[in-house]
Amino acid sequence: MKTTECNSKKEPGSFRDPSGFLFWHDGSLYRQVDYSYKESYDRLMESGLYDALVKKNLLIPHQETEIFPNDSTKAYKIIKPVLLPFVSYPYEWCFSQLKDAALLTLTIQKIALEFGMSLKDCSAYNIQFYKGNPILIDTLSFEPYAKNQPWVAYRQFCQHFLAPLALMSYTDIRLNNFFRIYIDGVPLDLASRLLPSRTWLRFALLAHVHLHAKSQLHYGRKTIEIKKRDFSRHAFIALIDNLETIVGKLKWQPFGTEWGEYYNDINYSDKAFQHKYQIVSEFIEVTHPKDVWDLGANVGFFSSIAGKQSIPTVAFDIDPAAVEKLYLDCRNQKDSSTLPLLLDLTNPSPGLGWNNTERSSLIERGPADTILALAIIHHLAIGNNVPFIRIADFLSQICKTLIIEFVPKHDSQVQRLLVTRQDIFSGYTQQTFEMEFEPYFEIIRSVPIADSERTLYLMTKRSNAGAGPNKNRLPETT
Q1: Cis peptide before 367 (omega within 30 of 0)
Q2: Model's pTM, two decimal places?
Q3: Which of 96, 91, 90, 120 is nearest to 108 (CA)?
Q4: Does residue 38 share a domain with residue 135?
Q5: 206-247 tens-digit pLDDT
Q6: Where does residue 434 rank: exposed (0-12), middle (13-18), buried (19+ CB within 10 A)?
Q7: Who's near 31: CB < 8 A, 6+ residues apart?
Q8: What's the number of domains the chain is made of?
Q9: Do both 334 and 285 map to the same domain?
């Protein structure tokens, strides 16, 4: 093969895979396939499995290239996968996103068996959402099917999918945050202790979580000898079918969430709402963004403005019910542009894993071309005591253009925040807001929203902003 050597930068999150790694070159992402994976890769490509999965939009497509990294002694192939608009993580997914990712994984396993192959790992981090649907992004996850051998990825599937889904369904939806603590999935013994006693009466959960956890504790330090007849292909298929059934039956019904009914309880008149929608539409038309992040998207009323124009849009919200509803709506409407995700702006996703680089922080995954920050300034500044200048600094790090709404203190939503606390926010004024944002953003337009006292701003980041906290500008911490 003719090769072209190049200077490359390895992707920090792919160093654990003994079969190869991801690297960047000239703004493009590549994957090295090592000689140690040659047999499995050739089987994947020659068996027809790759073509079958790509045709069904279950596996990310790739092209074989002639580019090699500088150290090519281990490289068998270099492939170039399709680049995703945005990489998300399981702790940012709603219940149905994790469920769909689990069902996708099981579907891929069933198809792989038809071609004489099997998944050697079942990490939830191998799944991403692309054009509205979950898709497997790890081309090196397959190996030839070993007759009568147990499924090597079974434990990982239970820890990454079944246990978290059961906890979210039966215990508390917020336990998806366990993914931020346990990067290799929820320990089954912990899941078993946290699940309610009635789950011991569900045979599938009893077998795959509770008894599986006991087995892990019992055999964790022992060598297990498995006879060849112990796990036939028929048993393998039955296991996958059983897991598929229990995952399919798991449900989560949202109730009592903070902002789930937000748009039924605002002080917008129909006229004000329609005018706000019109202004945001005009601002997006002017900016022509390549991508949009909507911070505090709720159920996606304003995210849809960009989504309907096929602009890749990430719709963030703190409320699991809102994200769940938006995801289900997008799935039903076959919206391929909008990606709903969970995000607490006061505690955004950090860098996680080894050296804090395996999973990128929110800031590292930016900047977005345009950010919508509608009706969130009061939640940050008054609800969470974040000064305007720190909000401006943060936003300047994650966007190039900002569409932001100022909500005055006498607005009913702000007054609701002040009902149970002392008003110590004398600096919460529109004048101060503009003054504190000015070092970071240039105000292009400001438009009062009709039949309302709120104002929408279109701002562009200044060239000297967005490089991180400026200690000369930021106030001292008290």
Answers
A1: yes
A2: 0.92
A3: 120
A4: no
A5: 999 999 999 888 666 554 444 545 789 999 999 999 999 999
A6: middle
A7: 14, 20, 21, 22, 23, 62, 78, 79, 80, 81, 139, 140
A8: 3
A9: yes
